[in-house]
Amino acid sequence: xxxxxxxxxxxxxxxxxxxRSTVPLVNPANKRNLEILVxxxxxxxxxxxxxxxxxxxxxxxxxxxxxARRAHSIAAQGGVxxxxxxxxxxxxxxxxxxxxxxxGDYRAREANVYRLAEVSGNIIDQCVAQGVPFAREYGxxxxxxxxxxxxxxxxxxxxxxxxxxxxLGAYSxxxxxxxxxxxxxxxxxxxxxxxxxxxxxxGIIARDMVTGKxxxxxxxxxxxxxxxxxxxxxxxxxxxxxxxxxxWKAHKKGAYFGNPCFTQIHPxxxxxxxxxxxxxxxxxxxxxxxxxxxxxxxxxDPRKAVDIPEEERDYYLERRYPxxxxxxPRDVASRAAKERCDAGYGVGASxxxxxxxxxxxxxxxxxxxxxxQGLVNPSAETIRQLGKDVVKEKxxxxxxxxxxxxxxxxxxTPMRIYPAVHYTMGGLWVDYNLMTNxxxxxxxxxxxxxDHGANRLGASALMQGLADGYFVIPYTIGAYLSKEISTKPLxxxxxxxxxxxxxxxxxxxxxxxxxxxxxxDHFHKQLGKIMWDKCxxxxxxxxxxxxxxxxxxxxxxxxxxxxxxxxxxxxxxxxEKAGRVADFLELGELxxxxxxQRNESCGGHFREESQTEEGEAKRDDENYAYVAAWExxxxxNWELHKEExxxxxxxxxxxxxx
Length: 658
Known about the structure:
Elements: H1 12-22, H2 28-31, E1 35-39, H3 43-55, E2 58-62, E3 80-81, H4 93-103, H5 110-130, E4 155-156, H6 162-179, E5 183-186, E6 189-197, E7 200-208, E8 214-218, E9 221-224, H7 245-252, E10 257-258, E11 263-269, E12 292-296, E13 313-314, H8 316-320, H9 330-345, E14 354-357, H10 359-372, H11 380-406, E15 415-424, E16 427-428, E17 441-443, H12 461-476, H13 478-481, H14 495-514, H15 520-535, H16 541-561, H17 573-597, H18 621-624, E18 626-634, E19 637-644
Parallel strand pairs: 1-2, 1-9, 2-5, 9-17
Antiparallel strand pairs: 3-4, 6-7, 7-8, 10-16, 10-18, 11-15, 12-13, 12-14, 14-15, 18-19
């Protein structure tokens, strides 16, 4: 199948405006007869469901949590980008577009990214109208702060809990539609297969996670808003329930998987403390806005951070990247931290950490506050306290979280951070309409590949999720549904539903009947170690080939020796985990296959064979300026399709943040 991205004709800045004016519409009476299934209720899912229901469609929403409020979007901390130029520092739609393309190392579609930048301002207006408590300046104007990969302040925020506040706004809109009867909400339900008829998505099979009952649901369209697959690494900043199952079932029913090897390593995570951990905790990138990152100039320096004088500190990001300093993109900052630690300059007991220090900016804020308060010759202690109060107002909950986890007071001593798996830029391949190559099946937010290329800039995940849900899918879905108004609802007794449910039931029974000796977590941890060691922050040909063989062997062992206690007709978290890890064991192999064939370094994908003399990522635009879209054929067998990336509005160049 040829990949048709369906990008509209015309000038880049006019594509979306013209498209919205010409896209087919569905009249209100017909909307009431069309049913849309939304799988996932995070920012993308809740905003899409609320918007589509408001338009008149019948909507069903499915989430595996007990409430949409528990979606992983709630964990986002730092902010949401928008090109409003409130700071009057030269921002614009084009600059946000340019920063996103460059930050993604020129591996994203121009048309999709420009549309994202174009609608970003609407997100802020929408959320303010919903009552989202964005931070404000003294005069009442919305406040902005800096994030990595940019030289302007365009990030809107609500302290260190922006994702939670945005999700509550979308949740309120969703609950309003539920209260009006326009949306049916199915909590504690997990989608375990997509039902297709004649190549079109026509419904899903979902499992009631409380009773174990398998349910059939028809839909004229299926929207997958199920987030990313970072938990393939076991240890990540994702919630433990985050998984790839919905997207993977869609993939095995024909949807292409785009750029699976593009995973993001976040530079500001609390370091691993031992084998007991089941997840990692992220310290928001917003902390890089006021924190300075450094390591001792002396290898294996035994002194405490506060005892190391200024002249013996290496502010390595400011040294290597003077134009951006501590605000280089995440992939650049992560590799720089790894390089310093590998060279013997790491700190902490594990020596796998660097310092994130707020002392300098606390003093700067303190001096400013002293002037504002008219204090003459304030003491160093007073300045310090005033600065601490400012930092506490901006980041207090993050500092409290760090202290609770580590037992260290970050106001008095620098935080220790190290890179960790965070976001996945890869996902289901979608066209300009956000539809996969399977008609009627859409992917929104982190579940698709479309907007971030090989590296996502900070504060752009919330932007994409809300843009897709509030402002893109309500228009683009009409292009498909306008042709489906005469399609009669598929009977739940149709052979496609029967076959799909039987396949799901057989897989569940197989997992329960293996009755092996090893837990699901045992296999997940083994997979995570393989992925981190050989397809993590750095990859090479030999390691990737070894990883593929090791994953195949581990998968074979899983299906022979995993032990899943309990039964299928009850609340059974181990059964849920088993199904998800089984999918991760297949995805992991594809990620390594994708990383192996992409013999270049770009963004978060760092092939050791392809780097500059200074250790920076070295792209190969002549051979790899494309989206890798993988078609599932059989176990361990995929076919690669390529969508050529054309850059007509930006001059493609080697990234430099110096």
